[in-house]
Design brief:
By secondary structure, the chain is mostly helical. It is globular. About 85% of the residues lie in helices and about 0% in strands. It has one domain (about 1-140). It has helices at about 1-10, 10-30, 40-55, 60-85, 95-110, 110-140. Helix 2 runs antiparallel to helix 3 and helix 3 packs parallel to helix 6 (about 110-140).
């Protein structure tokens, strides 16, 4: 029982539980709406679920997969930030550009910010695991 509780309190298990819950919620939302509606929530839920499963597997290849899959969402946020200056005809990184970006974030709601936060946590955990496994492998190959 103690081992089960300690396994459930690991960050990888908590992330997996959260993404399973979010996937079920997105799937139920998609089932209720007409089929021709595009559901960004379901797409993001699938990406996050694949990343979380790869984190739980905790192999080198699965950590790379998790880093790449979860790294797409922060990249999308950065691309939107960068393209806002083009669309709004503002100078990049000017005060008006940043103010327009923050105004857009305040109107978008909480879900995309939760996606961003979870994906950054998953990406950093995967990258840390990759670096630690690489350092351990290099250290074990140096010893006679």
């Amino acid at each position: 029982m103690r081992k089960l509780c300690s396994n459930l309190l690991e960050p990888r298990a908590i992330i997996l539980g959260f993404t399973i819950f979010y996937f079920i919620w997105a799937l139920l939302t998609w089932i209720r709406d007409p089929l021709w509606n595009y559901h960004r929530e379901l797409f993001v839920a699938i990406v996050l679920l694949i990343s979380a499963l790869a984190l739980v597997i905790n192999r080198r290849w699965s950590n790379v997969l998790a880093a790449v899959m979860s790294g797409q969402l922060p990249f999308a946020f950065f691309a939107e930030f960068w393209m806002l200056s083009e669309y709004a005809e503002l100078r990049p990184f000017s005060s008006r550009h940043i103010k327009a970006w923050l105004w857009g974030l305040s109107n978008v709601g909480l879900k995309p910010l939760l996606w961003l936060g979870l994906s950054i946590i998953m990406m950093s955990l995967a990258v840390a695991s990759i670096l630690l496994s690489h350092a351990a492998r290099r250290h074990s190959s140096v010893q006679p």
